[in-house]
Design brief:
alpha/beta, 7-stranded mixed β-sheet, 4-stranded antiparallel β-sheet, 9 helices
Length: 317
């Protein structure tokens, strides 16, 4: 049985409850290493079938483009590269086309993996099926926060075991020390309780890789809106007022016996487009405010981490 009073990263018993999300869900923070954990620490999404959909294709490509621009100068051409949790394979595609790298992708989503393979990105559902044993680079873009807290150490160890000596692993993950997280608590955009189980800090990462096999560098902290849409108050209100997504309304309309189904669906889509325009205007209006706010916030939302495999003595567990 898991003990919520012991930190999964540094084994400290100095744990404090920082806020409750609802009657059954609460968040704790290790006062020793700064690791934040959702309790109960469970994943409620089946990533093989639920997480990636056709609607996320454009969004995923935009994210991959942002990641590639940020890391392109650090990646040498003609290298063996592995992306873990690479969804539709867009980042791997950039590596393949612009760096002439040999790429592999690990993605549990059946739909996303199928799409990536159709784009000539060799994609597997787990690391044990890989046809290449060692890589020069490994990329983990917002994957670690989806792993159960008790499994993080093994997960990082297994990823690092796939690196050649001198190979580098880049990790992007939410920052447990984010000022926005402290300020907003349960209203923090990246809390995403259905998906995210934990938040690492720079200090907890030091405990996570506390051995002479790996060197750790925190490259930078960046605001969330650099890669992800800024928080929208309009979207927050809509979610409170309307629990269903637009696609749910369309499906409901198609299944009703009312004759003018097509008109109803068109009306829903028109309203969706109007709402999207207002959200874009809202974000345009608030963009300078977010820029100004992040200039003075002590810790940003996202950690960019570089782990280097020094001796290549790690083994997959």
């Amino acid at each position: 049985m898991l003990n919520n009073n012991i930190c999964d990263i540094c084994n400290s018993e100095n744990i404090d409850t920082i806020f409750r999300y609802n009657n059954t869900l609460y968040y704790t923070k290790c006062l020793c290493c700064g690791f934040i954990k959702k309790n109960p620490n469970i994943v409620t999404i089946d990533y093989s079938i639920e997480y990636h959909t056709k609607e996320k294709l454009y969004y995923s490509k935009s994210l991959a483009n942002n990641y590639f621009k940020r890391l392109a100068k650090k990646i040498n051409p003609n290298q063996y590269c592995l992306e873990i949790g690479g969804s539709f394979g867009f980042f791997s595609k950039y590596l393949q086309e612009y760096k002439q790298c040999i790429v592999r992708n690990i993605e549990p989503s059946i739909f996303a993996a199928s799409y990536a393979n159709s784009q000539n990105i060799r994609t597997f559902n787990n690391i044990y099926d890989l046809d290449i044993k060692l890589f020069d680079y490994i990329f983990l873009f917002h994957v670690v926060e989806h792993i159960k807290a008790a499994d993080i150490k093994n997960f990082i160890n297994n990823a690092m075991a796939l690196l050649k000596q001198g190979g580098v692993c880049y990790i992007f993950t939410p920052n447990a020390n984010s000022f926005s997280l402290k300020l907003l608590g349960k209203y923090y955009t990246w809390l995403a309780p259905d998906e995210h189980t934990n938040f690492l800090s720079s200090n907890s990462l030091n405990y996570l890789v506390d051995n002479n096999e790996i060197t750790l560098s925190i490259l930078e902290e960046i605001p969330a809106f650099i890669h992800y849409p800024m928080p929208s108050f309009l979207s927050f209100i809509r979610k409170k007022l309307f629990k269903h997504k637009v696609n749910d309304f369309i499906e409901l309309s198609e299944n009703t016996n009312v004759k003018p189904k097509l008109k109803k669906i068109k009306l829903i889509l028109v309203l969706k487009n109007i709402f999207s325009i207002f959200v874009k205007l809202e974000r345009l209006l608030f963009y300078p405010i977010y820029r100004f706010y992040n200039m003075f916030s002590s810790h940003k939302d996202e950690l960019v981490i570089e782990l280097k495999n020094v001796k290549n003595n790690l083994k997959i567990k």
